Amino acid sequence: MNFPPQEDGFERLWTPQRMSYVLSNDSHVPPKSDECPFCIAPTKSDEDGLIVWRGCSVFVIMNLYPYNVGHVMVCPYRHVSFLTDLHDEELFEFEKTSAVAMQVMKQVSSPDGWNLGINQGDVAGAGIASHLHQHIVPRWNGDANFMPIVAQTRTMPILLSNQRAAYAPVFAHLAREAGLKESSIAANTDDAVRDKKTQTPATHVENATADMQEE
Fold first, then answer.
1. Catalytic residue at 204?
2. For residue 158, what is the domain's CATH number?
3. pTM here?
């Protein structure tokens, strides 16, 4: 006997482009700090690391496998797993930066709403459970259209690099207005990039911590 499907009241945001991540071996192996993409990204230039903004204790990065156009993540520099692992200063900047990210999206692309979420631990569905990160996903009315359902294709009208470039100057301006301090190693000069490539994630955390302690 066949039963008709039951409505559960949930809206579906189809993201088939994320299957390349789900099916990869990397998505099932907890990374060490020296292999963690969130520890490696700050050692690269903003362009290469897809970093939108660097604060003293957290940074904002584009999601390589976005749920929707403009999807970013807020991450602490420190390789910690849970929100409760953050120091008070880190926690304040983490949440304040998330709020600024929403303001940036509103100014750049005028979304109708947002999904914010933190999956903490493997059992909660975290893709990279060993390094805390908060997803901030802009939403528009009708963004779950027929393409993912019929053609198993997610339309992404802008390259991640171009989206990062659109966000970055607005984020820098609004972060300053919000009283957030930018990291002193956020410059994109060739010398700065070369210096950052020689730093380990631990060195970057030490430098960011020093920035946070400066008045």
1. no
2. 3.30.428.10
3. 0.71
